[in-house]
Amino acid sequence: MPVDYRAMIPSLSFRNQAFINGKYVSAASGRTFDCISPIDGRVLTQVAECDAEDVNRAVTAARAVFEKGSWSACHPGKRKKVMLKFAELMAKHKDELALLETLDMGKPISTSAGGDIPGSIQAIQWYAEAADKVYDEIAPYRPDSVSLITREPIGVVAAVVPWNYPLMMASWKLGPALATGNSIILKPAEQSPLTAIRIAELAAEAGIPDGVLQVLPGFGETAGQWLGRHMDVDMVAFTGSTEVGKYFLRYAGESNMKHVSLETGGKSPNIVFADAGNLDHIAKTSADGVFYNSGQSCNAPTRILVEDRIKDEFVALLTKHAKPWTPADPLDPNTSMGAIVDTGQMNRVLGYIEAGRTEGATVALGGAQARKDTGGAYIEPTVFTDVRNEMKIAQEEIFGPVAVAIAFKDEDEAVGIANESIYGLQANLWTRDVSRAHRLSRRLKAGTVVVNNVWGSDITNPFGGYKQSGIGRDKSLHAMDKYCQVKNTYIQL
Ligand code: NDP
């Protein structure tokens, strides 16, 4: 039976406090902020606004339990068992979590229920299962000695996450950080704190010890900055804008040189060659990639490079396949595109659309706010053509439902345009020429290259960027390394 999400709303109780040392508590200052739904502008609840004092308390609890060793030094098989229970409890509450995610940040309920929440559960499960399957090493060394290379948990980890995939971005960090034995303090984005707060008690119910997983809602400039500057935080794992990613590098440099891992977005090229085959299929897949999650995806293939002899045909097809992404009520199970996360972000995206017009690009579709009467934040699917790569709309991360089409003449020009960006998260490439596919995959400066598709993501595969798209990788076994110190021990026999 399909879940009636609307009917669930009246009985929802919004957890809205910080979760410190195993308990929900108000912020030390007593301050709260409004948690607003972008679906209709309604205030859902008032959330604790954590600040320096709350950060200090959480770090003290995280350090104490880390030193005690009840999680950091227990058998990894125990961590596996507890984390599997945690994933099981998330699964038990999956409908509630999906509804919270949709109300909080405006993505369609089909996306929350079919993508974000199952993906988050899978991340916790996958790292739980890995916890007791990753071995350390013995190095080749002198015959009269043994050289051990072991991984140890890094200590107190702060995870500062964004609003576009709130629980999933958190889970990509919680999974490997918990599996390797760290204490983790999660700061959700101010726009989307509800699922992070809710899962804290599920983690406790599963048996994760007090202080090992704590949640501090609040603002970036205060709670986020204090975590970044705290002398007893050993690592920050961040996803968000490049601008704030750089702040964390600065905070680390000005405090204790904590480890910093960054996933800071992109402006992914999607290169379509004339030999690529079925253009209708490519245009549809490209539109799906751009407009999924209202374009609020760091790897969205929004910079569409098209060989000039098929450009007009391709833009017409892209526009045709963009139209069905017209925004609608996120709570309707048939909706494919919902809201923008808040009115601030909506105005930011509309500002980019205006800049595109001013710089001389042509709007082939959309370009305006939608569903104004709802009180929410919505934008039409928008396609720009006649775009040059130096334009602002081709260089900056718009993070909204906006595609830009740029023409190219040949392979060299395509690679040149694709790589002419401060970002290098993902690049997509459509061709039936297998040599060209290999040749270009090597030349494209991106952490992920997808050939003949735009979708190429799984928890089993590493994700992260070249250049200003970040430092380090989320997902896969590679992510576990960054939450560990590597220790070398020599034993003389
Ligand atoms: P931010 O980078 O500002 O926010 C990401 C996280 O960092 C949030 O938890 C935020 O907290 C926190 N933060 C913000 N400022 C600071 C600070 N000074 N010190 C410490 N932590 C901080 O993203 P925005 O929400 O402002 O979005 C702006 C743009 O960033 C988007 O348009 C998009 O281009 C890009 N972005 C990229 C994402 C990605 O997946 N790579 C995800 C989200 C945004 P708080 O929310 O409380 O401010």
Features:
binds NADPH dihydro-nicotinamide-adenine-dinucleotide phosphate; seven-stranded mixed sheet; 493 residues; 16 helices; alpha/beta; six-stranded mixed sheet
* General form: globular
State which percent range the strand residues make up.
Answer: 15-25%
Structural class: alpha/beta
Low-confidence stretches: none
Mean of residue pLDDT values? 98
Helix content: 25-40%
In the sheet with the most strands, the strands line up as: 14-17-18-13-12-20-21
- First-last Cα distance: 66 Å
The bound ligands are:
NADPH dihydro-nicotinamide-adenine-dinucleotide phosphate
For the report, how would you describe the main beta sheet? 7 strands, mixed
Number of strands: 24
Protein model, in words:
By secondary structure, this protein is of the alpha/beta class. The chain has helices at residues 5-8, 52-68, 76-92, 94-105, 109-130, 166-179, 194-206, 220-229, 242-254, 279-291, 311-322, 343-358, 392-395, 411-419, 434-443, 478-482, and strands spanning 18-20, 23-25, 32-36, 43-48, 137-139, 145-153, 156-160, 183-187, 213-215, 235-239, 259-263, 269-272, 303-307, 362-365, 369-370, 378-379, 382-385, 402-408, 423-424, 426-430, 448-451, 466-467, 470-471, 484-492. The longest helix has 22 residues, at 109-130. It is globular. It binds NADPH dihydro-nicotinamide-adenine-dinucleotide phosphate.
